[in-house]
Amino acid sequence: MNRKKSGEFDWIAQIRERFASSVPAGTVGIGDDGAVIPLGGGRSTIVTTDMLIEDVHFVRTAISPRDLGHKSLAVNLSDLAAMGAEPAASFLSFGLPGDVDEVWKDSFLSGYRELSSKFNVPLLGGDTTAAGKIVISVTALGTAPDERIKRRNGTRPGDVVCVTGPLGDSAGGLLLQSQTPENEDEKRLIAAHHRPKPYVREGVWLGKQPVVHAMMDVSDGIASDLVHILEESGVAARIELDRLPISNTLRRVAAAKDWDAEKLAVTGGEDYVLLLAVQLDAYNDLNQSYHSEFDTELFPIGEIVTGDPWIEWQRDGKLQNIDYKGFEHEI
Ligand code: ADP
Ligand code: MG
Questions:
Q1: What does pTM read for this prediction?
Q2: Is the pLDDT of residue 5 over 80?
Q3: Helices marked H in the chain — which ranges?
Q4: Which residue, 85, 116, 214, 248, could crosslink 80 as a Cys pair with Cβ 3.0–4.6 Å?
């Protein structure tokens, strides 16, 4: 049957519209990093779910099962962090082909267990089935006081746009993962792709700061992810390409391989850093407190401006005629 391909985001918009009237008042459904279900008494449960599919999200021969176990939970904890929520539990579902052996399964669980121990997130259930390829689906639950929940829709013109860590390392790792790494830099990029750091404590801390007006995590590249914040908030953004936090590691490897580091940083995705918008007059104080707490700074990359949901890319204060696109699954 011939079928016209469409994008993941159109499909999600279709589902959202179809089910909008079924969502009770006070509940947040489709459209943020997690759903928000009010518990009463000023607290809510936050729920998020993410799949990792063999040959779509990972290549079995390139990523170790232990790293894959880590990553499966990490990407979900990252979504909870993006909402400002404290993680409470996870559920792990598996589609497993017959050629996955016991050693692989054991190592996967070790990686998953290590991260769940680190952040005290018990695994409370899941589902298991036979499948043609490895399918992993994780659901994570968190909790937060209502006033600490960060959405994508709260930003205003004047806010500073910033991120909590480097952009593009994971995209570099994706390009390198099928070869034997030639040096420590290449190993570091591959590790960024295979073992992303979820900014759990940072997300909970940022949740407590009223001057953080919106937050999400970067899974598809800021060219795409920031637009979600802009759409939900009804504003535009001006991003300074010179200010992107591109690691020296990525710069060195990109120079050697003739890659465009800036493009990887903006469109690559899977960095799982937090992307947030902060009230301008509170930015310096917030950054100082963040530094005392985490011994690293926030990286400001631009500002929110009035206008249709659109990113103006600037260099040296001059508008650039570039149309960067983040990652979107074709379905
Ligand atoms: P993230 O990258 O933060 O995990 P996604 O881009 O996967 O977010 O999803 C964006 C929003 O769309 C989320 O609120 C998610 O729950 C929702 N969503 C995605 N796919 C579906 C689906 N098949 N049915 C219902 N909601 C979906
Ligand atoms: Mg997300």
A1: 0.96
A2: no
A3: 8-19, 65-82, 102-118, 169-176, 184-194, 200-207, 222-233, 248-257, 261-267, 283-294
A4: 85
